[in-house]
Amino acid sequence: MSRTVIPFGPQHPVLPEPVHLDLVVEDEKVIEARPSIGFIHRGLEKLAETKDYVEFVYVAERICGICSFIHGQTYCQAIETIMDVKVPLRALYLRTVWGELSRIHSHLLWLGLMADGMGFESLFMHSWRVREKILNIIEATTGGRVIFGSCKIGGVRRDMDAETIKHILKEMDVIEQELREVTKVFLNDRSVKARLSGVGVLLKQEAYDLGCVGPTLRGSGVAQDMRKLGYAAFNDIPIEPITRSEGDCYARCAVRCEELFQSVQIIRQALAKIPDGEIAVKVTGNPNGETITRTEQPRGEVVYHLKANGTKNLQRFRVRTPTFANLPAMLKILPGCDLADVPMIVLTIDPCISCTER
Amino acid sequence: MGYFEMSKLVLKWALTKPPTTRYPFEPRKALAGSRGRLVFTKDNCVYCNVCAKKCPTGALLVNRAQKKWAIDRLRCITCGYCVEVCPKKSLEFSTSHGSPLVTKDREFY
């Protein structure tokens, strides 16, 4: 049988962002996948050398549009570690709430894209309908729908009053009910199961060896979650990583579905426990030192390496994003699959190319 | 495994008003606290230039001699840093996003 090369992307109906794969196929079976990335490289790491370290929060938030808040939060945490800033407890709780809201909106966006990818248009629209409620909460509390802009070095920019907290808690009940209706279809529907079960199986050991992170790793049965490190308010809010043992596309989808409810619970706990007090401390001087900070993004662990030399500009800013860590696993599971399953496998690692290429 | 998992959702929403609005006939209601358009109040501004100096995208221009304040709306990322640093509180956000821009000119005040 002769081999054919089929280009997949950079423009493809299932890809929200550009990544290119050269698929070497024999009949309908994929033999090899050769990726090429770099279509949306913006040079944001280099920009750190010319921007003020306070202003750079805005750039860090714009690394990615979907997990924007956690990028800003991680950057602030890194600078706070270097400068030894003690962030007020209330600010840490608010960061946790916004971080989890951002996780819910990211997972719902992904569930919608997944439904769209398998041709389940109505489910896609229902996922995004629920997401809209989350975006409204985010906009009412931070001012922005996607770029929150509410995290700053030393704390947060905006506070939530008691009325807002009550409103969010009330909305969470409605949202949880609606999430149950939508995720029930993802988890139980026969057509969804037939499309996802047994497709793109990544074994536990393989996932671990290839350095996967986030739901891709947890879908293969490894209980790893950076929130266990206890950053922000996660010292007071215990969480248990959600895992599935199957390692296929269905398992990765199920992990994300269950994480939605976990995030709702975290928001409820954080808002119930939120202490009174200041929301920010004044930060003066310039950072001098080096640090590595890790947080859990919707797609997995993100690693920030910051090096400062006592001036207002950073000397080095480096980000290891979750999609970059998950790409080797995607290339591992693509050979041997059917050509028709490629969109599903590519989608289930939740590729965020803006993050990866910065 | 179910055959009609979606049917309940479909039936419920077939009998409910659509959650979408018919934009532009029905404009979206602005949420309180939303960062919309940057509004400048001339009365209490002392033209100290702090907003222009702090703006991460260089969208603002302040001329103290001529008492002019200008904004390039297409450069502004509505981050709110200028609102935060303004000593006279002459900058604020309106909750509405305003109408779409048709020119690339700077707006002078």
Observed structural traits:
heterodimer; A: 358 residues; alpha+beta; Cytochrome-c3 Hydrogenase, chain B; 3-stranded antiparallel β-sheet; 13 helices; B: 109 residues; Alpha-Beta Plaits; two-stranded antiparallel sheet; 17% helix; 15% strand; elongated
Level-1 CATH class name of chain B? Alpha Beta
Beta-strand residue fraction of chain A: 5-15%
Assembly state: heterodimer
Structural domains of chain B: how many: 1
Number of helices of chain B: 3
Judging by the overall fold, what is the CATH architecture of chain A?
A: Orthogonal Bundle
Biggest pleated-sheet summary of chain A: 3 strands, antiparallel
Overall average residue pLDDT of chain A = 89
Tell me the series of helices and strands of chain B, N- to C-terminal: HEHEEHEE
The most extensive contact between chains is: A-B, 28 and 25 residues
Radius of gyration of chain B: 21 Å
Number of strands of chain A: 8
H/E element order of chain A: EEEHHHHHEEHHHHHEEEHHH
Note poorly predicted spans of chain B: none
Q: Based on helices, strands and strand pairing, what is the structural class of chain A?
A: alpha+beta
**How does the helix and strand content of chain B classify structurally?**
alpha+beta
* Unreliable residue runs of chain A: none
Number of distinct helices of chain A:
13
